[in-house]
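Checklist before submission:
- one chain only
- standard amino acids only
- sequence pasted in full

Submission:
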Amino acid sequence: MTTTLREALANLQREGLDRIDAQMLLLLALQREAHDRAWLLAHDGDAMEASAATRLAALVQRRRRGEPMAYLRGNQEFFGLTLLVDERVLVPRPDTETLVSWALDLLDAQPPSAQVLDLGTGSGAIALAIKAERPAARVWATDASADALAVARANADRLHLSVDFHLGHWLAAVPAQRFDLIASNPPYIAEGDPHLAALDHEPGSALTAGPDGLDDIRALVTTAPAALNAGGWLLLEHGHDQAGAVRTLLQAVGFTQVGSRTDLAGIERCSGGRWPLRR
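Returned file contents:
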């Protein structure tokens, strides 16, 4: 018996998938764009081909195992860019757009050719968003994972954006370089945090940082001054309840103009400070 697209969608919802997830999976199985829901509604009486039904069953299994929808699609939107993503990198989150917006605001007060560094770039999201918005900036990006850098380079090539990628652990990947702005979305989840269970398809090394989640942030705050030009900025994304601790770390090392930025939900999502013009 032939199943229509309407019936396939209803079956997915009866099986416990919410409507948006069900629509997305059905569109992927039909090899259509994820934003094509209007087409799906207009064609919901169409018969579902056997090949699409097979693809749908495989996608549903992956989704039920907790795989992010971005991995099923193979891409994720971030700051107006479509980035390729898979299990080698974290899925870029809207929260991180707060960090990019802050960086762009600060770069408006810098020379157009400012030197910018994205530490722990993953898919390349931060570096590529900044380069897309400030083409004259010299943008660098590092990651300790060769697999992640392969994804970031593929995104840069696809988007025709020039970023200098370097393999290595934090600032050790770019020795003797100095920057006007360093931005990072480092691991900041505490080991053993119950939320990690929902993220087990994403690379754990990009998520956790010690008992309180601040190990990598401490390391970056301590080492960044040696890599910043006088008056340069360090911006860090962090957890929803870590802003106060991160500001304290920045102030203790000697950063000035220390503050935080809130995301669309009003949560302090990133903190940063300026290295003094004179010490």
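Reviewer check: The chain has two domains: 5-65, 75-274.
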